[in-house]
Amino acid sequence: HVQLVESGGGSVQAGVSLRLSCAVSGYRLSRYCMGWFRQAPGKEREGVASIRPGATTTAYASSVRGRFSISLDTAKNTVFLQMNSLKPEDTATYYCAAGTSTGFPFRESAYPYWGQGTQVTVS
Fold this sequence. Notes:
Number of helices: 0
Helix content: under 10%
Largest sheet: 7 strands, mixed
Distance between the termini: 37 Å
Low-confidence stretches: none
């Protein structure tokens, strides 16, 4: 049974940092492509950051490149999204997802496993 649980969201002021975590159970993290997606009210879900199996390659949406960073801790089976210099437009529910490498970076149909989401609000 594969399970992804996000944490670390919150309400913050613009300019500060947050780190989201995604604890993964039911499979070995290093075997899957991991992605962070977000959905703002009234908008479609979009890919934010993705990392290939083995952490060999990363990809970022242009809107977050240079500010966000995705990483893995295989010992803890956890994926992180470090978010710096947050902006009001980063406000959204953030989802962690796991999928095959064909999903890299943001092809949602190749990500069968999703977390419940964590809310990030930037004012």
